[in-house]
UniProtKB/TrEMBL annotation:
SUPFAM superfamilies: ATPase domain of HSP90 chaperone/DNA topoisomerase II/histidine kinase, Homodimeric domain of signal transducing histidine kinase. PANTHER family: C4-DICARBOXYLATE TRANSPORT SENSOR PROTEIN DCTB (PTHR43065:SF46), SENSOR HISTIDINE KINASE (PTHR43065). Keywords: ATP-binding, Kinase, Membrane, Nucleotide-binding, Phosphoprotein, Transferase, Transmembrane, Transmembrane helix, Two-component regulatory system. PROSITE patterns: HIS_KIN. The keyword Iron-sulfur does not apply. This is histidine kinase. Residues 207-412 form the Histidine kinase domain.
Amino acid sequence: MLHGIELILNQVLMVLFPIWTYHLLFQKKGSRQRFKPMLVLVLTISLLLTLTFSINYYDTFYFDLKMVPIIIAFLYGSNPCGLLIIGITVVYKIIFNDDPPLITVINFGIISGLLILVAKKFRTYSDFKKIFLISTLYGLITITRGILLVYTNHSQEIGIVFTFSFITWLTLLSAMFIFENMNKQMELELKVQRAEKFDVVGQLAASVAHEVRNPMTAVRGFLQLMSDDKNLTESQRRYIHISMEELDHSQVILSEYLSLAKPATTDLKILNLKADLENIIELMRSFTNLQTISIVSSLEDRLLIKGDSSEIKQVFVNLLKNSIEAIGEKGEIMVSAYQNGKYVIVEIEDNGQGMSETQLKYLGTPFYSTKDKGTGVGLSLCYKIVHSMKGTISVRSKQGKGTRFTIQFPSV
């Protein structure tokens, strides 16, 4: 009995220890990559260890924790990561365990299909939904094993199979807890870093902006007076006009910096987001009149959130302007807003030029812009406003295909 428990604990350790090592040493590197080589390497080590040192019972069946690295690869890596781990599993079982090739490929093909479907929505779920989803999925796998045992006249082994499946389920939840905990720590670190950057920008803006604005206003006033002089040549008037335009542009930049310096709004009111979005979309359509860009909207009727109407306008005007600029001359912007449980979701999707993985990584940080003449302040301000309303912004983009911003607000 003690020897059996020792073997089971060794299996658990062989799976969880490499995962802990991955998070301690490699998780912060390339966290947005589609394919994660270090994660695949670690999960491969776990997989090979658990398959090599599997527990034999009744001289016919083997117990191992291979499903843990397989499921983790799909849910916390990507489909390519998961398919590679599945491929390694199939090859190992055919070569070393003498499993029937066709049945093995079919079984793991079905598992791959289920996990690919689950992984699409998994990252958007709450912790409870994630646990429920994975528990249900693994429960179905366990039930099919039980049915197979009955069908092959091995019903006396159902008890031990369910016991081993329960241990596998606990190990899987432990691995999920490790990933979820570390991901939350990374998100917290990013928020702290972003808050520090905003604080630096705020101090800089508060200490410099007003002092700079005073001489700029005086210069613009004198330029305005000079432009009324009838003795000026046409080229002199043009130079004065250009100078005044550049001063106005500088004033806009200073205003953006001052907006970052302002404390977050605390006097939030209950708003119907649909009404605000309709006004903003109507306003932005005027910017697309000269271009062949259409804005299509799909808004649910009752979308109640707590917020400030002027700041909401600032966020969505900025995001829509970015979409218009990303498209250029011809394209479509889709704006959809809907209720999803306790949250109101707004999605803004365009078919513009899109962004690279590197651009996505730094998006929303002060002074970073994907535009040649951008200041990197407008989008930073959007993030700050949304976070002050207890919301989140997520971005999906692919170069040449377009970008989708997903903004999530707590519902009232």
